[in-house]
TrEMBL record, chains A, B:
Residue stretches making up the DJ-1/PfpI domain: 3-167
Record's protein name: Protease I
PANTHER family in alphabetical order: DJ-1 PROTEIN (PTHR42733), DJ-1_THIJ_PFPI FAMILY PROTEIN (PTHR42733:SF2)
Entry's family note: Belongs to the peptidase C56 family.
Any Pfam family matching the protein: DJ-1_PfpI
Amino acid sequence: MSKKIAVLLTNDFEDSEYVEPVQAFKEKGHEVTIIEMEKGKNVKGKQEKIEVVIDESIDDVSHGEFDVLFIPGGFSPDILRADERFVRFAKAFMEAKKPVLAICHGPQLLITAKTLEGRDVTGYKSIHVDLENAGANLHDKEVVVCQNQLVTSRQPEDIQAFVQESLRIIG
Amino acid sequence: MSKKIAVLLTNDFEDSEYVEPVQAFKEKGHEVTIIEMEKGKNVKGKQEKIEVVIDESIDDVSHGEFDVLFIPGGFSPDILRADERFVRFAKAFMEAKKPVLAICHGPQLLITAKTLEGRDVTGYKSIHVDLENAGANLHDKEVVVCQNQLVTSRQPEDIQAFVQESLRIIG
């Protein structure tokens, strides 16, 4: 069944961590909505390979409209977590126990939303201490699935495993 | 008296947070050494205003050669803290109680070095929860001086206060 996937994205995202999962989600018939501060804006990947047009402003969407949250990595999550609207949006998915898929620096948004206490996670090497300090159980593995709800991976090399487990969870 | 200041810097540093403090330090007669992975490499600020040539490789320096550590912000500290050599270097200054000056995302290196428990700090908004989770006492102020040793600030707008307190601590 087609699911509605919200993607939180701004400049300096890790190109492949956006492109490859989104392509796989769309191929399975899921509907993807890219959300940032400003609808219609172009955002660029940090490798400067990809430009993406923002579908919706965070002000015009509600978490209730979506089944799944996807947070690509790069520096995008750190920029977004300085804005309380994105933190609240991510927190709502975690509290509703909807599927949340976060790769690389993606879990930074979940740290700021204070949602990782006791959860099994992984993430990019630079945020490992932050994840442990947030009370999460850190695993240095290509993909970690927690309570059949939260899927996390470390880096671009893990994308295949990340997509496979994400698609399994999305159902 | 002239002091030897080590600066940890790589690509995507916040341009003004490097340029303005370093200029002020040099004007007071202090000696500044820019350290990254590779000596002679050019690194660029995230605003693309500034390029800096690296003076020394992290492999060729010891913390004992320097009196002070300065960590500019932007995404540079997050890149550096994925490399254990920079984490150890920063940790050595904190353990030796030498002056450490960190602005914006600079304190991320000190989090990964596990040196902020019980310390008074500030930092860029996006890392506030990380600082609290690291056991630091977070203050939302333009500059925080802890035990006359650790100087932290939040963002480019705080540079003047950051430089003033940094110069006072350096002596």
